[in-house]
Amino acid sequence: MTTNSEFRTNFYVCIVGSGLVGLACGILLRRHGFKVTILQKDLTLGTLGAGIQLHPNALRVLKDLGVYDKVRAVSILPQAIILKEYKTGQVLHTQDLLQATEKYDAPVVTIHRARLLGILYAEAIARGVVIRHGVSIDVAGVDLAGGVLRLAGPSEEIIHADLVVGADGANSVIREAVTGGKPAVVPHGKVVNRILVDEAAIMARPRLRHLIERPNIVVWLGPGGQAVTYGLDGTFNIAFTWPWSADPKDAFFGPQKVDFEEFKKGLAAWEPDLRELMELGGDALRWMFFEHPGDGEETPWLDPSGRLCIVGDAAHQVLPYLAQGAALGFESASILAHLLGKTESEQQVRDCLDVYQRLRKERTGHVVRASLKTSRLWQLPDGPLKDERDREFLNEVPSAGYPNFLADPFFREWLWGFDAKAAAGEAWARYEQERV
Ligand SMILES: Cc1cc2nc3c(=O)[nH]c(=O)nc-3n(C[C@H](O)[C@H](O)[C@H](O)COP(=O)(O)OP(=O)(O)OC[C@H]3O[C@@H](n4cnc5c(N)ncnc54)[C@H](O)[C@@H]3O)c2cc1C
């Protein structure tokens, strides 16, 4: 008879994409004894973007991955999330993060993406994950029924996997294979302009040096846009969301260079401190934002044979206003890996993917909608609605419906208190009970 661990040792998982989520998934699957290879199209470990916030639900997974101490050693611990009115700089709301650290047994941190990716990459290699660079899959190379991948390019090498996990990001080819088409392009009508400033230059400006001396996540809420700023240990990160055409014809993918001088001219009405900060930046790159409807029952995240599934941005890309994209991806990777770690047969793998899909669609769908709503609330134009929002910020105790969801104690508990590994265990126990 095949034992549980023998089954896993002989079970071969091929993950497409070595982003944050693919690596996290690979590490946990190896821990459960599976054979794991990750295919990565780039030759090097490149990352786009600079900073990322990690909230307690993300850090709980990183603890489970065994990389928490390494992440903490190279990250910044902001004391608060501060929301400001864009013209006057008036503080509308301060959300203490140090209390949250105690409550959730994990902090909120900011970290350079490349450092985070490097830590996960090193851990994956140390655990015995095989990572192949410079190999890509296109949709024609995916055989749904057989779990067979034909690599793109002249070699046409064939890979036979017991399970293919698509962690290949927002433009996932595995998603396309599983759902039978590309998702509709729904522009959010915004771009994000990313500006990096040397922290030494900020320290030389008396009005600005508090940004470094008291690390916080500071957000200026403006009409149709917002500026999110935080430190990254030597570099200061500014992610400036700005209006853009919502016409799909004007959509672009990947970063574009911004006419920085022109962009700064559009900031005449914004608080002088923010404009002074922007003067310290040399240039900017922009990315376009797309909306994700949140998948319902009808959109599959796995194929009927149970040989392919999707995870991370490939499954549930979310606008970044609640800083939850990677966090949700880590949660999904954790749930998928811990569920798979319970399986003893191919039939159970198929069932486990069903459980995974059910569990994750509901939660990620809520966050997708809450993030979209946050952008509408935080980027209101001047007028009575904005005045009412600011009044609520200033005068009301955060509760359900408060315009900062992260400060609403019910939503925050649901979001930050989530323990992905425990949720996988509970879902598996329910599955076993139903089988009896
Ligand atoms: C402006 C902005 C700010 C954000 N801020 C935050 C934040 O503060 N906190 C947070 O939690 N999240 C944040 N996010 C979201 C977060 O960055 C993403 O959710 C996360 O990086 C997704 O990781 P992933 O591994 O699923 O996908 P990706 O990072 O896209 O990785 C996919 C990988 O697959 C590879 N790949 C793609 N296609 C193929 C193929 N055909 N063959 C082989 N390899 C392939 C790619 O090269 C890539 O390495 C932000 C996003 C944006 C845009």
TrEMBL record:
Source organism superkingdom: Eukaryota
Pathway in which the depicted protein is active: Secondary metabolite biosynthesis
Molecular function terms, GO-annotated: FAD binding; monooxygenase activity
Segments forming a coiled coil: none
Membrane-traversing stretches: 12-29
Gene3D superfamilies associated with the record: FAD/NAD(P)-binding domain
Pfam families per the UniProt record, alphabetical: FAD_binding_3
The FAD-binding domain, residue ranges: 13-179, 305-370
Family, as annotated: Belongs to the paxM FAD-dependent monooxygenase family.
Protein name stated in the entry: Uu.00g086090.m01.CDS01
Organism: Anthostomella pinea
Lineage start: Eukaryota, Fungi, Dikarya, Ascomycota, Pezizomycotina
